[in-house]
């Protein structure tokens, strides 16, 4: 694995770039987002099923963008980008989870209790 490329166009990451790859990633992600938008605006699913479907569309769009646009895979010349992604995902999930927990606790502690409201103690 040599790092001494005198010509920037010979770098492996530049060699991976192609118009068809970028177009495929853009089209796949756009179609998935369009599908989620149609499902939400049409209200064709129950709320929980709709949430799961939207999460699935968003996850697939993120994977398509990482593969087609960012070219993140397990090849040797791209391994450090993959390692960075693998380290980022748990930190991202923990951050979102702790933020959700913080705001739910804040809501429970600061909002007035209304008698007879479901879910209130």
Automatic annotation (TrEMBL):
Residues passing through the membrane, by range: 21-42, 48-70, 82-103
Assigned keywords, A-Z: Membrane, Transmembrane, Transmembrane helix
Keyword match Membrane: yes
Name of the protein described by the UniProt record: Cytochrome O ubiquinol oxidase
Organism of provenance: Acidithiobacillus marinus
């Amino acid at each position: 694995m040599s790092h001494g490329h005198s010509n920037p166009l010979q770098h492996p990451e530049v060699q991976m770039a192609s118009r068809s790859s970028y177009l495929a990633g853009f089209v796949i992600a756009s179609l998935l987002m369009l599908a989620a938008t149609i499902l939400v605006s049409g209200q064709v699913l129950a709320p929980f099923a709709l949430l799961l479907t939207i999460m699935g569309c968003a996850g697939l769009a993120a994977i398509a963008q990482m593969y087609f646009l960012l070219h993140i895979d397990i090849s040797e010349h791209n391994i450090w980008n993959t390692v960075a992604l693998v380290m980022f995902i748990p930190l991202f999930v923990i951050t979102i989870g702790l933020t959700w927990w913080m705001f739910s606790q804040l809501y429970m502690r600061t909002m007035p209790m209304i008698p007879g409201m479901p879910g209130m103690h």
